[in-house]
Amino acid sequence: MFSLMKRNLTLYFKDRSGLFFSILSSLIVLGLYIVFLKNGMLKNWSEVPHTVKVLDPWLIGGMLSVTATTTLAGINRLVKDLEQQQLQDFLITPVKPFLIQLGYFLSAVVIGIIMQIIVFLTAWGYFAYSDNIEVETNVFLPLLGLAIINAFSASAISLLVVTFIKKLTTLSTVSSIISTASGFFSGIYIPIGSLPTFAQTLIKIYPGSYSASLYRRLLMNNQLSSSFKHLSNNELIDFKKQLGIGY
To answer: Which end of the chain offers a freer environment for a tag, N or C, measured as fewer CB atoms within 10 Å?
Structure first.
């Protein structure tokens, strides 16, 4: 099992172009926020002190949720091995089929954790340079814990998805759809409070929206307390509802 994990991780991280495209959706989210979304959101919430320091961590939380979809790119090795008939070679070994599946699953979990760390450091580095945002050191350990839980959850869903897929071309199409949709379902492009009730319900069915909400609660907690200390509690509740910080 561990040999299979090592092999899958080596193949994944050796593919530089595949590595880049697997986090492209997260980088697109960052680019869209900077170019199109940021100014509009700053105007909408201009009454909140230090608005930019509130909204930047909000975006990072959404980006980390979207990054968890890289587990699907990590677990596509299972489909490749199935299509290239390498999986049959593994199945004739004395290793139990469950352990073989577990090897694919755990390698996807590791990929999900590493990619979330990379995206967090990238986004944090950019916003620290451009907007002087700070992340308290006591947040890092809970943040890592959330990244691990998020990676396990996303890998479980990815494994469920690939069980119904036998061709790489099909998987590529499904991956594109999931990567694109995850930005909407994480409430990044359009905040959940701006959507009709039916759309909000759909978002609450998507597991990734809860990871985005948890990340936001963790990253924004101290700044929200500071920014809303002179505003009413109702304004804070409304802000959280609009931006999907806790459901």
So the answer is: C
pLDDT of residue 173: 87
The letter for the amino acid at 23 is I
Quick one: pLDDT at residue 106?
94
d(CA 68, CA 206) in angstroms, rounded, equals 13
Centre a 10 Å sphere on the Cβ of residue 168 and count the other Cβ atoms it contains: 15
**How many Cβ atoms from other residues are within 10 Å of residue 139's Cβ?**
15
3-state secondary structure of 68: coil
Can you tell me the distance from the alpha carbon of 140 to that of 163, in angstroms, rounded to the nearest whole number?
34
Is 60 within 8 Å of 128 (Cβ atoms)? no
Q: Report how far residue 188's alpha carbon sits from residue 41's, in angstroms, rounded to the nearest whole number.
A: 11
| Per-run averaged pLDDT (10 residues), the chain, 247 residues | 85 84 84 88 86 92 91 85 77 78 92 94 93 88 95 93 86 84 87 89 90 93 88 88 87
**In whole angstroms, what is the distance from residue 220 CA to residue 239 CA?**
12
d(CA 21, CA 180): 12
CB-based contacts of 11: which residues, under 8 Å, 6+ apart? 77
Q: What's the sign of the alpha-carbon dihedral 117, 185, 154, 244? A: positive
In angstroms, the CA 9 to CA 29 distance is 26
pLDDT value of residue 141:
95
**What torsion, rounded to 10 degrees, do the Cα atoms 170, 168, 151, 199 define?**
-10
